[in-house]
Design goal:
By secondary structure, the protein is an all-alpha fold. The chain is built from 17 helices and no strands. About 5% of the residues have low confidence.
Length: about 475
């Protein structure tokens, strides 16, 4: 493997997909809820219906694509690089779907609900197909902890660069107030993301690649390139029988719930709880950008700590920090506007930063499964896909739960252009928002600490997985 200017070419190629996906995912997750609620004026019922459909599709597409990528005889599916290369353009097109309305939506228009269903399902389907292949590459490029930390390092630099899309999008579009500029920026992001991901498809390699090519040729000759569904069910049962896998899934479910809560509602909470004369639009853009940029800086700065202490202790510490910070903010109250802005940003940073390390425990689970069952090659996609089967529904449950609670306190009438209600009527809404900001992270942190404390692969940074 040649190094140019000290750059590891395989790690660079791997991280380019992270750069492209990071640019698109940050914008999609941060803006789509506000777009459909405030601009397209989707009804609560249609919003919930879309989230239910999305939750079902979100859960089943990961193990489905995991099965296809681990067992397909077609190289466009079985070869990780080809999955990324061919999936990238479609992924970028799916990213553009929500930002271009099919018509001028009236309040409660059924077409806005259909638009949301198609946008969510198309985007997540292509995201899953591409990023599941990348996650499998992470486990298959190397089994050495040092090599995986190197991938994490390159990955975080790529995520850092990709997350700046939120900052520039906010500044260019005035936080989506200038919608034409917002749309133009998303088209530019889609084009750049496609180029980045295609680079991964062309230039990345894994230690199993030659073995995969030989197996493909053998399968073509023998005609037995795929497993039966009974074999897939048996393999899935083996994966789910592992205590560490179940503990990780439980912890990860609440992490994804917390992450969706932060990404979808931080802007809404800040707009309603922090007066605009206290925090003007430009500072809000910087604040939102920091919530996506700083996590990557934090992970890069903690590289030495990861080598010394391992991911297990770093992740556990983040849960304690989130819980203490939430309790402190709840005690101090919502009147401290600058402190509230700092807390909202810090919460996003810590949740995203710790989540960025989750490929490490999953890769260790893949290694342990490989050794325990003496497999010829790792079931990387199936492990990542089975994990997603149980954790991805949290992405839909978070917005459904929060929107239901907020609408109980009049949020759906907040942007009513016909009748402007008395602002004093929304004091209860502001209180509900503040309680959510504090109590959701606190409860999630407690549950995660209880689950993560029993995870037994705690020292893979100094020993091999047994």
């Amino acid at each position: 493997m040649k190094f140019v200017w000290g750059i590891h070419p395989n790690a660079l190629a791997y991280s380019m997909t992270t750069l492209g996906a990071g640019m698109m995912n940050s914008i999609f997750n941060f803006y789509y809820v506000k777009l459909f609620l405030n601009r397209y004026k989707i009804s609560e019922a249609a919003f919930h219906q879309a989230q239910v459909v999305f939750m079902i599709w979100n859960a089943i597409n990961d193990p489905l694509f995991g099965y296809i990528q681990d067992n397909s005889s077609f190289s466009c599916c079985s070869r990780r690089q080809f999955s990324i290369l061919y999936g990238a353009p479609l992924y970028a097109l799916a990213f553009l779907l929500p930002w271009f309305p099919w018509k001028h939506y009236e309040e409660g228009d059924w077409q806005s609900g259909l638009h949301l269903i198609i946008a969510l399902c198309a985007f997540d389907g292509l995201l899953t197909f591409v990023l599941l292949a990348q996650c499998a590459l992470f486990a298959e490029i190397s089994t050495r902890h040092e090599s995986r930390l190197q991938l994490i390092k390159y990955n975080q630099v790529a995520t850092l660069l990709g997350s700046t899309s939120i900052l520039f999008c906010g500044l260019i579009s005035d936080n989506m107030e200038n919608f034409a500029s917002f749309q133009a920026f998303t088209v530019l992001v889609a084009a750049l993301a496609t180029a980045c991901m295609c680079y991964t498809g062309k230039y990345s390699t894994s230690q199993y690649e030659q073995r995969e090519i030989c197996m493909e040729n053998a399968n073509l000759e023998n005609g037995d390139g795929t497993l039966s569904w009974s074999s897939v069910i048996s393999l899935t049962k083996q994966i789910m029988a592992e205590k560490n896998f179940l503990l990780f899934v439980a912890m990860n479910f609440f992490q994804i719930f917390h992450l969706a809560f932060c990404n979808n509602f931080t802007m809404i909470f800040a707009d309603n709880l922090i007066p605009k004369d206290v925090l003007p639009s430009s500072l809000r853009s910087i604040m939102y950008g920091a919530g996506f940029i700083c996590p990557q800086c934090l992970v890069l700065l903690s590289h030495t700590s990861l080598k010394k202490f391992g991911y297990y202790r770093i992740i556990l510490f983040s849960f304690y920090f989130e819980g203490v910070a939430a309790a402190a903010m709840f005690i101090l109250g919502s009147e401290h506007y600058y402190l509230l802005a700092f807390y909202l940003t810090t919460n996003m940073v810590i949740v995203q930063a710790s989540f960025s390390l989750f490929n490490l425990p999953l890769a260790d689970i893949v290694d342990a499964d490989l050794i325990k069952h003496k497999r010829r090659s790792p079931l990387s996609s199936m492990v990542f896909g089975t994990n997603a089967l149980f954790t991805k529904p949290a992405q839909s449950l978070a917005p459904m739960l929060v929107v239901t609670i907020l609408n109980q306190f009049g949020y759906e009438n907040l942007n009513n252009e016909v009748a402007q209600p008395d602002p004093s009527l929304f004091l209860g809404l502001h209180d509900a928002m503040f309680y959510l900001i504090c109590l959701v992270p606190l409860c999630v942190a407690v549950i995660q600490i209880l689950a993560w404390a029993h995870f037994s692969i705690q020292n893979s940074h100094v020993t091999a997985v047994h």
